[in-house]
Specification:
hydrolase activity; Purple Acid Phosphatase, chain A, domain 2; Calcineurin-like_PHP; Metallo-depent_PP-like; Metallophosphoesterase_PAP; PPA5 phosphatase
């Protein structure tokens, strides 16, 4: 009620489906309960810790694929309290291996899709407090490049970022609660890869909007006021 039902109450959002994934704070609580909440809320869709969505691109015969990951299952948990804390490895190596095998198979199967989006909580690249996630650099980045994935979507750091590297867009949208403008990991990302950063502590927050069209994907960063950043 405090973080979802009584927050996203605008009439324009009533019919919008929410596709949910778990992050480290969710894993510190009860992810099973969040999965089961799908049976109680018509707009909360969380069918499995990781899952695939097929998206139709309006005005075309083309489709896009969205692969929703559980990066805590893949890489492990971090409590967030130290600067640059990184996940220390999966709690269940067998489950992590199964997740990675699923992802490889899904990327192979998505070869015919116009766009492929992959989403996870931890960032691959980030200039902010948490910085890049070594586990994802090792496991995920080569797959994103090999399969020419359109973009990787994430959160975890509390700001808005867009980076581009190896033909893949990296969209970080973690400004739904509060904003942080520190950039201690400016030197931890490839030179020239950071194209946009916004983390003003006086801002009411914001989010990223992706529009899929037959010819392109457009990313727009918006402030909670509606201002285009």
């Amino acid at each position: 009620q405090d973080t979802f039902e009584r927050v996203f109450v605008s009439p324009g959002l009533r019919g919008v489906p929410w596709y949910v994934m778990a992050g480290n704070h969710d894993h510190a609580g009860n992810v099973t309960a969040q999965l089961r909440y799908s049976h109680h809320s018509p707009r909360w869709h969380f069918p499995h810790p990781y899952y695939s969505l097929r998206l139709h691109i309006p005005g075309s015969n083309s489709s896009a694929r969205l692969l929703v990951l559980d990066t805590v299952l893949l890489c492990g948990h971090t409590d967030d309290f130290g600067l640059g804390d990184v996940p220390a490895g999966p709690r269940d190596a067998v489950a992590a291996g199964a997740h990675l095998a699923w992802l490889r198979a899904q990327l192979e199967a998505a070869a015919g899709d116009r766009f492929v989006l992959v989403a996870g909580h931890y960032p691959v690249w980030s200039v902010a407090k948490h910085g890049p996630t070594p586990c994802l650099l090792r496991l995920l980045r080569p797959l994103l490049r090999r399969h020419r994935v359109t973009a990787y979507l994430c959160g975890h750091d509390h700001n808005l970022q867009y980076l581009e590297e190896g033909g893949v867009g990296y969209i970080l949208s973690g400004a739904g609660n509060f904003m942080e403008d520190s950039r201690p990991h400016d030197g931890s990302v490839p030179p020239g890869s950071l194209r946009f950063f916004f983390g003003s502590p006086t801002s009411p927050g914001g989010f990223a909007h992706l529009r899929l069209e037959p010819s392109a994907v457009t990313v727009t960063f918006l402030e909670a006021t509606g201002r285009v950043l």
